[in-house]
Amino acid sequence: MTGDVFDPEQLSRCISCGFCLPACPTYALTGDEASSPRGRITLMRALQDGVLPPDDETLAEQASFCLGCRACEPVCPAGVEYGSLLEQWRVHQWRGRRRPALARALMLVAEQRWLLRLLGLLRRAAPGPSAVPTRTSAPVTGAQLLLGCFERGLFPKVSRAAQILDPTLAAPTGQGCCGALHAHNGDLAGGERMAHRLGAELPGVIVTTSGGCAAHLAAVLGRTRVRELSQWLTERAPAGEMRVDGRRARVALQDSCHLRHGLDVQAEPRALLRSVADYVELPSAGTCCGAAGTYSLLRPTDSRRILDAKIDEIEVADVDFVVAVNPGCLRQLRTGLRRRRSRVRAVHLAELLTRVTPPSP
Question: What's the mean per-residue pLDDT of the chain?
Answer without folding.
Answer: 91
